Every structure is written in C-alpha cells, then in structure tokens.
Amino acid sequence: MVIDEAEKCAKEAIQILQSLPSSKATAMAFSNMSQLKLFSVEIAECIKWGNLAIQMAREIKDDEILCHALNNVGAAQWKVPSSKEAGKILLMQSLDIALKNSFHEYAARAYSNIIFQSVEGKDYDLANRFLQDGIAYCEKMGLDSSQNYKLSLKARMLLETGNWDEAAAIAKNLLQNPEQPGTIKIGCLTILATVKIRRGDPDSLIPLQEAKTLAFKTKEYQRIIPVMIALLEYEWLTAKRAVTEEELKTCMDLIQKVTNVFQNCEIDFWLKKARNQEIGLPEMCEPYKLLKEGKIEMAVNFWQVKGCPFQKAFALFEGADEDKKNALLLFQQLGANAVSERIKMEMRAGGIKKIPRGLRESTRTNPAQLTNRELDVLQLLQKGNQNKEIAGTLFISPKTAEHHISSILFKLDVKTRSKAISEAVRLGILK
User: Fold this and answer.
1) How many CB atoms within 10 Å of residue 378?
2) In this structure, what DSSP letter does residue 282 have?
C-alpha cells in the first residue's frame, strides 16, 4: 500500500474513533497517523498526532502505544536542529520501554530510528554503538527484515566514511535476496551504484535506474533524494543526462516540503555541479555554508572531524592549487578513479601545473596509504617537531605542514599527534 492510500485509511479510522471515549484503538489510530507522517517527513503533523497518542496512552496506562508514539515523535524532533536533543531523549525512552516490556518489533524499530538519525546527522560513533546492539538484538529475536535494514544503514555509514569495499559487499549480499523489501533494496542499489560511479565502472547506471524506479513509486523524500543525489553525481562525471525534467520537478517539490538540511544541501551541491543550477535553500548546514562563505579550511575541518573523506576532498578542491592537488590525492586514495580523472580535467582547464598522476608504489604499500611527504612529516612529528620546525626542515609553508598533519590524523583515524605516532608504530610505519 503506498503512503497516500495508507493515510486515507488512517484518516477514516480516526474519523470513526476520535468522538468515542479514550481507548487503545483510538490511541493507536493517532500513533499510526503519526508514523505515516514520519514516513512522508511531515514533521509538524507527525508530532501533532504523536502527542495526541502519547497523551491518551498515558491516560489509559498503555505502555505499548506509548512506546510506539514516543518513537514517532522522537524521530521527528531529532530531524529538527532546535529539538534534536529532546527527540533523542524520547527515542531512547521508547527503546527503554520496548526492551523492558519485550516489545520486540518496537525495540527493533527504535534501534533503526536511532541509527538512521545518527547516520543522517553524521554522528557515526553513536550510530556504530547502536548498530552493534541493534543487529545483535534482531538476530537474537529472529527479526530478519529489521536486521537487514540495519545492515543497509551500516553500508551507508561505511560508504560515507570511505570504506567503500565493505559497503559494497554488504549491499551486494543483501541484494542477493529477491524478497528483500523495497526500502532496503533502494538503499543498497544506491550504495552499490555510487561506488561503481565513483570508480568508473561501465555498468554503474543499471542499479541506479532500478533504484530510481523503486524510489519514485514510494513518493517518499527519504527514498527519492539519495537516489537523485547519486544520479546527479553520475551526470557530473559522465556529462550524460540521467534525470528527466519531470523527475527533477518532483524532487524540487519534495525539497520545498521537507526540512532535511544535510540532504537538501547535498543535492543542491550536485545540482550545481551537474547542471549549474541552484535550489536557493532558506537554510544551509555548516560545511556547505562555510564553503559558500569561502571558509574552505573550516569546511575541510568539519568533514575531517566527521570522518567523511569524499566530502573532505571536495571541500579541499574549493581551495588553492595546493589544496586541489591534495584533494586529488585523497580521491586517488579512495579509489575514486572516475572522480580523479574529472578533477584532473578541471585542474588542467584551470591552468594548474604538475598535477599528481596517481598513487606511488610506496603510498600503496604502507597500511594507511600515507604519501612520501606525509611519511616525512610523521617522522618529524615522532621527533617532537612543531609545525614551524617541520615547515623549515621540509622547505614548505607552515600551512602546508598543517594540511599534511591533518591528513595523517585522518588516515590513521586518530585525533592527536601522539596517538598518530602510537598508531603508526603499531602498524609498522614507524619504528
């Protein structure tokens, strides 16, 4: 049943029940409508119906419906920056009630919403913690579909954090099941296609076209927009149209209705790259706003802290010539061959000289894929040298030395110089 038909049935149920005394059936009808509004990302409506359900569930002392409604309202509030923390608390309460009362399906749904919202907000530490617990819980309770959905979210997180091989492997494995629900299939097809697009695989459009067909059938923002982002990335890389004007209009209509700052900014970014068009968003999330204001280093640092190397490379590419070269190296390290070639073309057109050809053998063979220059910087860090000393020794600017150090911390997945040295020793990069 598509969402429009489901909402029609939900309205009819409410019309019949709402004039009657408070009951489990009425409270559940309210909560069901709240959940449907969550699917279509109508935040205010989701919260309105969810709060009615919460109020009635508490009145009739029904923990099951309370758990269901708290899940809806918590997930909706989490999507809004001003109410994010309040929403997080409600979702955690829903999970706690579900676990205490053995509401297994509601617990699985609470895990899924917590993970989804964490990945959406680039809070990968929180997502990873609940992924482990949620997958284990679903496995224990035999909730295969919910477990698979969480695995698809894990694949998305791995894609965003640069672990493309593992992301693609999870997506491929899930797609082997012909009975996989559309919600999971759309995400997996998009993940697989995105990796193929960036690597330049010739069959990259096949899974993406299938994902597009399935996504548009749902009429849901959260299914359609990620597919559209991948399609626009494909258009930018290949200079071939993959989205019709009608599909683009549908997408724009959804964006006007839904406040999802990260994804709206991301599709705006790719629309400008692919078609030189802008949406004119009323609100921009931090990294894209910083780029627009020319604060390149701050935008790069945002993605560095979040652990998103692909976005970090694109932010770097907005900087000076040396930044562009570092961005190219990062794309090459990710294995984004098609992106690297497109970036090289833009660099040549911009008159940049001495464009890096590709990863050297020494870069490929060290565990963290550090460049020769980064290995030099790392050795000086081990000796206790500061930025100015490193710059003087290597005849580079202090700012360039700082960029190298940031790249080293990122590649070693650490936050401090001392931890970078310890990790490099552990990996055998340093002695």
Assistant:
1) 22
2) S
The pTM assigned to this predicted structure is 0.80
Residue 78 token pair: 């989490």
Two tokens at 347?
Answer: 């660099």
* Spatial distance between the Cα atoms of 4 and 73, rounded to a whole number of angstroms: 20
Q: How many CB atoms lie within 10 A of CB 170?
A: 23
* Burial status of residue 428 (CB atoms within 10 A of its CB: 0-12, 13-18, 19 or more): exposed
Which pLDDT value is given to residue 404?
Answer: 87
User: Can you say how many angstroms the Cα of residue 355 is from the centroid of all Cα atoms in its chain?
Assistant: 30
Q: How far apart are the first and last CA of the chain?
A: 62
Structure confidence at residue 423 (pLDDT): 87
**Taking the chain (431 residues) in consecutive chunks of 10 residues, what is each chunk's mean pLDDT?**
70 81 91 91 92 96 97 94 94 98 97 96 93 95 96 96 93 94 95 95 93 93 94 95 94 88 92 93 91 93 93 94 90 91 90 72 62 86 90 83 86 86 86 75
CA 188, 194, 196, 199 torsion: positive or negative? negative
As a whole number of angstroms, the distance between CA 73 and CA 146 comes to 20
Q: Which residue is listed with tokens 């790719």?
A: 270
Pseudo-torsion of CA 8, 13, 15, 21, nearest 10°? -160
pLDDT (0 to 100) of residue 359: 52
Rounded Cα distance, 220 and 108, in Å? 22
Q: Three-state DSSP class for 1?
A: coil
Tokens of 239: 């200079």
Rounded Cα–Cα distance for residues 114 and 96 (Å): 12
**Is-contact 29 49, C-beta < 8 A?**
no
Residues in contact with 429: Cβ distance below 8 Å, sequence separation at least 6, in sequence order: 366, 367, 368, 370, 375, 378
Domains and CATH numbers, the chain: 1-120 (1.25.40.10), 146-154+167-240+268-276 (no CATH), 296-426 (1.10.10.10)
List, in order, residues 6 or more apart from 346 with CB less than 8 Å away: none
